[in-house]
Design goal:
The chain is mostly helical. The protein folds into two domains: 41 residues; 36 residues. It is built from two helices and no strands. The model has no long low-confidence stretch (mean pLDDT 88).
Length: 89
């Protein structure tokens, strides 16, 4: 019985791996078709500008995330720093 169960488990794992492989191959095919379209429709100069624009968008996203991380860090430091009161009389 243990051999039959083990065989069934291995068959299920193989079927799962085969489904994953098929999905990856479809994705790779769509990606290849996308880049073929990009190269056929857009001239080289346009692709260079599009790549630069994509880079700028990522840099903008990085600046946004860095800004909010800085705010969170400042709040955390403000909350953990001991405060001292100085009496001015």
């Amino acid at each position: 019985m243990a051999d039959e169960e083990r065989t069934r488990e291995l068959e299920e794992r193989v079927a799962t791996l085969e489904r994953r492989l098929a999905r990856r191959q479809r994705r790779a095919g769509m990606e290849s078709a996308f880049w073929a379209l990009m190269h056929n429709v857009f001239p080289a100069e346009a692709r260079v500008h599009m790549k630069a624009a994509g880079r700028e968008q990522l840099l903008a996203a990085r600046a946004y995330v860095d800004h909010w991380i800085g705010k969170l860090d400042a709040e955390e430091n403000e909350q953990s720093a001991p405060r001292e009161t100085i009496d001015i009389s």
